[in-house]
Design brief:
The chain has 401 residues and is α+β, with helices and mostly antiparallel strands. Helix 2 runs antiparallel to helix 3. It is 30% helix and 35% strand. The N and C termini lie far apart (106 Å).
């Protein structure tokens, strides 16, 4: 019994010691976890996400307002040179593509037949003048004899009729001489105005006929030169208002709309609107001293119809579309972004004119807007400002909807 009792006491001691060891170990293991939990609760919150953006300050400036349309270059004056007399085309002194001046000879027709006709008319006039002179002398003699009753009155009257007839013959000769001189003059064709010669439509040696359908050459005045463009009829009032204020600047660009070809002035709208298309044609004049414009060329035309004074402008890249309308992100001094609703009245050359929402001093976000929300933290880099010019490419639009 004593031995069994001793065994029970030893077992109880072992259990107590084991429980104590377990308790000690569990306490030490739980302590770090509790400390870690406490440290986490007391640590600083994670730093907010910072979005890198590019900004540019909204600017107040004068903004030119343009209307854009497609135009066709035309000779300011155009003439088709045709023969007014029949004959052999003898010479073409002006070369193809040559610039000629008013009065320069551009074509010559064989003049020999017309020179002969003129000589014949002059000779006939001389003959008829001699007959007239003789008839007048006879009339004077008959009149003197009639006064002394040596010649009958009937003879005087007949002679008076002969004089009148010869006088009419001389007048007819004068008309034939004038006609022959005109026809002879038609053998030499001169440029009616300064312009450029076309390619030859007939070569030297061909027979040309008076008022034939085939021309010899054509001449187009290209200094100055004209451009005819079309605009929607509802823009005509803007054009008329601009004309009332003074000359309207007209800019011509190549067909790609990227290269400025010439600067000119609007001359006039057409006298009627085309009812089939609802458009109005307008004609502009360009000096074209550098030959950048060529008849038949298609160009893009811009008319400056107004200037918006002291307008608040922002780069068009900054303007965003939202469910409530247009807005921009503004970089605030505290390093966050704010969303500002705006109204845009005009867009051109990468700039938008803001009519409501900005004062013109705000730092506008240009890039990185897709990652922004109101109140987002940003890191701003100042972008190079956009400086528009009147010669910018034709990409203007009206106010966004």
């Amino acid at each position: 019994m004593m031995r069994r009792r001793s065994l029970w006491i030893i077992a109880a001691v072992v259990v107590v010691v084991g429980v104590g060891v377990w308790w000690e170990m569990d306490g030490h293991a739980a302590s770090p976890a509790a400390n870690a939990t406490s440290d986490t609760s007391n640590a600083a919150k994670p730093a907010p996400l910072v979005v890198p953006v590019a900004t540019q300050t909204a600017q107040v400036r004068d903004v030119p307002v343009f209307l854009d349309g497609l135009g066709t270059v035309k000779g300011f004056k155009t003439v088709q040179i045709r023969a007014q007399v029949t004959g052999i085309l003898e010479a073409l002194p002006a070369k193809e593509g040559q610039e000629v001046h008013q009065g320069d000879i551009v074509a010559q027709i064989d003049s020999a037949p017309y020179k002969a006709a003129l000589d014949a008319a002059v000779a006939q006039r001389s003959e008829d003048e001699a007959q007239l002179q003789s008839a007048q002398l006879d009339l004077h003699r008959y009149q003197s004899l009639a006064k002394s009753s040596y010649a009958p009155v009937q003879q005087v009257d007949d002679q008076q009729a002969t004089v009148s007839k010869d006088n009419a013959a001389v007048s007819g000769d004068e008309a034939r001489i004038e006609t022959a001189q005109i026809n002879l003059g038609y053998c030499v064709i001169r440029a009616p105005f300064d312009g450029r010669i076309s390619l030859y439509q007939l070569d030297v040696g061909n027979l040309v006929t008076a008022n034939g359908t085939s021309g010899i050459i054509s001449i187009q005045q290209d200094k100055p030169i004209a451009v005819v463009m079309t605009l929607p009829e509802d823009q005509l009032q803007q054009v008329q208002d601009a004309r009332a204020r003074g000359p309207v600047l007209s800019l011509a660009y190549d067909s790609t709309g990227q290269t400025l070809l010439a600067r000119g002035t609007l001359l006039t709208p057409n006298n009627a609107i085309d009812t089939s298309t609802g458009t109005i044609s307008l004609k502009s004049s360009f000096p074209n001293t550098d030959d950048h414009l060529w008849p038949g060329q298609f160009v893009n035309v811009r008319l400056q119809v107004d200037t918006l004074k002291k307008a608040v402008t922002v780069p068009s890249l900054a303007v965003q579309h939202g469910p409530s309308g247009l807005f921009v992100y503004v970089a605030k001094p505290d390093g966050t972004a704010a969303q500002v609703m705006i109204d845009v009245g005009y867009q051109d050359n990468g700039l938008s004119v803001v009519t409501k929402g900005l004062r013109g001093t705000e730092a506008i976000v240009l890039s990185g807007q897709s990652r922004l929300a109101p109140g987002a933290h940003i890191k701003a880099t100042v972008a190079k400002p956009v400086t528009p010019t009147a010669e910018a490419a034709p990409n203007s639009t009206g106010a966004p909807t």
